């Protein structure tokens, strides 16, 4: 691999290890996606990472009426590993979203994993399009 590709592969490898060792993700794999110049990570977190606001309202209503918590199974997630020093634009994120397969209902989303020089990784949920805010 040449310079930039090797660098993004190293960042992806560090994030992969963090997900596996510190966050107990399962079925992790680093994949090359056609149309992207960097690898993506795909895996299954130990619990659901995101519940749409409409689904949150329905779950709360069910819990109130039934007196029991609803069970939400984890879903496979795509992880974009970046170094904190990289500069990303909306068009860069749009290109990543466009390259992902349409496997999930609703808006596409990724987990953005920002790697710092000290090997700290911070995770963010990034969704395509507008998402209405959660109801309090």
UniProtKB/TrEMBL annotation:
The keyword Acyltransferase does not apply. Keywords: tRNA processing. Pfam families: Sen15. One of its GO terms (molecular function) is tRNA-intron lyase activity. The keyword tRNA processing applies. One of its GO terms (cellular component) is tRNA-intron endonuclease complex. GO terms for biological process: tRNA-type intron splice site recognition and cleavage. Residues 15-136 form the tRNA-splicing endonuclease subunit Sen15 domain. SUPFAM superfamilies: tRNA-intron endonuclease catalytic domain-like. Belongs to the SEN15 family. This is tRNA-splicing endonuclease subunit Sen15 domain-containing protein.
């Amino acid at each position: 691999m040449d310079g930039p590709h090797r660098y993004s592969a190293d960042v992806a490898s560090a994030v992969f290890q963090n997900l596996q060792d510190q966050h107990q993700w399962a079925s992790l794999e680093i994949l090359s996606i056609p149309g992207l110049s960097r690898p993506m990570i795909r895996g299954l977190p130990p619990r659901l990472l995101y519940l749409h606001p409409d689904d949150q309202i329905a779950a709360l209503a069910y819990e109130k009426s039934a007196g029991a918590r609803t069970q939400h199974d984890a879903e496979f997630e795509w992880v974009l590993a970046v170094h904190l020093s990289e500069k990303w634009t909306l068009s860069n994120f749009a290109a990543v979203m466009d390259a992902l397969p349409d496997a999930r209902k609703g808006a596409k989303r990724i987990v953005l994993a920002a790697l710092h020089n000290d090997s700290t990784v911070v995770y963010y949920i990034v969704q395509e399009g507008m998402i209405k805010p959660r109801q309090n």
